[in-house]
């Protein structure tokens, strides 16, 4: 007979138990979280709290006042700055510039007279010093330590007593006395929990660098994102100097704000007005282009969508997208074919944004449809047009949030004509706003149609401006 065992295996994530070890939890589907445990933990009994509960009106606010980092684009994303005791996780692909950004934050923080501790667990101190020389970040108030042992890091915090801690990165820190490998689920949870405790105890803001998986998600257990207060994503193409900082989670401010930076030889610099970064300069009107204005948080961004339509010799025409969602573009092509009469089933279609922008705002649906129709008919728009609208499956245009803010940005940039969905009821001085109800109606306003022999030439859009 097989020997019986009274031991059980418990998931550290959700508490699920099983009589035998498994690599993946059957309840929360977490990997590597099931460990042996003979008995469940004892029940928790009540105790006298150290500090009594106070009426909410008597709670002090000074300890929660955010401190500006003097990096305005970062402050925009965080809300108004770094909150004392907060833990911020910055994630991004390798080589995108996470260490450069946080070194610049540490530099500006130290220049205000506050003591800063920069702990590198991936590089040597000399390598960070070389980067600091290049970015002019060598200052007396910035302390540097190369450590990957959690105990030594906590010792440095005791000795330096910093006003800001930067750790690069949390996945490479080892817990002393533990046999688990650095970067594992248990290691990351224990390291992060220890840093959260020291941050709350000392009212110390902590900036952590995090790795990402091949899918772009934060590496490590999902608990990591729940433990920290703010999760930021640093995105960008390594072949392009533009970097976008997005807030995924923010307990102290908006969770949809975006900051814009540019990588240069001397480090990283802010881009306070990103107008023109995501558009191209044409000497003359070109077919297959249309402009739209997206909302990145509360910031309106001018975005250009380009399309190329070419005859296809393959049984299944190609559909290639860059910077826009392929599924959404496929839907727009189907709407153009079925509702607007644009023949695309025998043609290859390529759709891309300019400047490496990644667009997920439905407001660019109409601009994408106009760019594809312009490329299919090989007809350029005589006048720059701002196209706003979400396209439905029946070809109708749906209203969007923040239309007034988008149109105000279009007027500020000097545009004269904008197409918006029916019922938007927006009026902006110096900008002619034309309401259209469907994609076919928008193409009719722009006079985009298949040219046949004997047709009169298309009128210029300047004539439409006064109609």
Q: What name goes with the CATH superfamily of the largest domain? A: P-loop containing nucleotide triphosphate hydrolases
Distance between the termini: 93 Å
| Strand runs, count | 21
Largest sheet: 9 strands, mixed
Q: Nearest-angstrom radius of gyration? A: 28 Å
User: Structurally, how many domains make up the residues?
Assistant: 3
Instruction: Report the structural category.
Output: alpha/beta
> What is the CATH fold-level name of the largest domain?
Rossmann fold
Query: Which segments are poorly predicted (pLDDT under 50) over 5 or more consecutive residues?
Result: 1-5, 460-467
Biggest sheet: strand arrangement: 6-5-7-8-4-9-10-11-12
What fraction strand? 15-25%
- Overall morphology: globular
| Overall residue-averaged pLDDT value | 88
What is the second-level CATH architecture of the largest domain?
Answer: 3-Layer(aba) Sandwich
Please count the helical segments: 11
| Assigned CATH class of the largest domain | Alpha Beta
Helical residue percent band: 10-25%
Describe this structure in a few short sentences.
By secondary structure, the chain is an alpha/beta fold.
Q: Could you explain the architecture of this structure?
A:
Helices cover 24% and strands 24% of the residues. The chain has eleven helices and 21 strands. The strands form five sheets. A nine-stranded mixed sheet has the order 6-5-7-8-4-9-10-11-12, sandwiched between helices. The radius of gyration is 28 Å and the shape is globular. It starts with 7 loop residues before the first strand and ends with a helix.
């Amino acid at each position: 007979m097989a020997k019986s065992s009274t031991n059980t295996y418990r998931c550290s994530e959700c508490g699920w138990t099983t009589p035998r070890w498994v690599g993946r939890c059957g309840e929360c589907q977490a990997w590597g979280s099931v460990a042996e445990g003979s008995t469940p933990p004892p029940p928790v009994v009540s105790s006298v709290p150290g500090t009594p509960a106070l009426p909410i009106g008597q709670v002090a606010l000074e300890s929660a006042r955010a401190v500006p980092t003097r990096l305005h684009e970062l402050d925009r994303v965080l809300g108004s700055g770094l909150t004392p005791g907060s833990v911020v996780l910055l994630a991004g692909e390798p080589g995108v510039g996470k260490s450069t950004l946080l070194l610049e934050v540490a530099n500006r923080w130290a220049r205000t007279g506050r003591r800063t501790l920069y702990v590198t667990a991936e590089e040597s101190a000399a390598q960070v010093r070389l980067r600091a020389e290049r970015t002019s970040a060598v200052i007396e108030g910035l302390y540097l330590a190369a450590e990957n042992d959690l105990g030594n890091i906590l010792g440095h915090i005791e000795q330096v007593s910093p006003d800001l801690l930067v750790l690069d990165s949390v996945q490479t820190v080892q817990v002393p006395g533990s046999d688990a490998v650095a970067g594992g689920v248990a290691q990351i949870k224990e390291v992060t929990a220890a840093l959260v405790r020291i941050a709350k105890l000392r009212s110390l803001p902590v900036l952590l660098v995090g790795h990402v998986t091949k899918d772009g998600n934060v590496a490590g257990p999902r608990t990591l994102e729940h433990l920290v207060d703010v999760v930021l994503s640093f995105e960008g193409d390594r072949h392009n100097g533009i970097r976008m900082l997005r807030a995924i989670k923010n307990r102290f401010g908006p969770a949809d704000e975006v900051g814009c930076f540019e990588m240069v030889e001397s480090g990283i610099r802010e881009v306070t007005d990103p107008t023109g970064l995501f558009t191209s300069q044409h000497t003359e009107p070109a077919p297959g282009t249309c402009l739209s204005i997206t909302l990145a948080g509360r910031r309106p961004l001018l975005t250009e969508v380009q399309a190329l339509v070419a005859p296809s010799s393959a049984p299944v025409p190609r559909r290639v997208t860059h910077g826009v969602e392929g599924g959404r573009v496929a839907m727009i092509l189907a709407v153009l074919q079925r509702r607007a009469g644009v023949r695309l089933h025998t043609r290859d279609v390529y759709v891309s944004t300019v400047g490496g922008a990644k667009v997920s705002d439905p407001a660019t649906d109409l601009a994408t449809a106009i760019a594809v129709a312009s490329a299919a008919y090989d007809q350029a728009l005589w006048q720059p047009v701002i196209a706003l609208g979400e396209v439905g499956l029946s070809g109708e245009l749906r209203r969007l949030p923040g239309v007034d803010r988008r149109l105000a940005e279009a007027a500020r940039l000097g545009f004269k004509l904008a197409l918006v969905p029916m019922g938007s009821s927006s009026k902006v001085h110096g900008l002619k706003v034309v309401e259209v109800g469907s994609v076919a109606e928008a193409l009719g306003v722009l006079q985009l149609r298949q040219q046949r022999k004997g047709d009169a030439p298309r009128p210029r859009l300047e004539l439409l401006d006064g109609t």
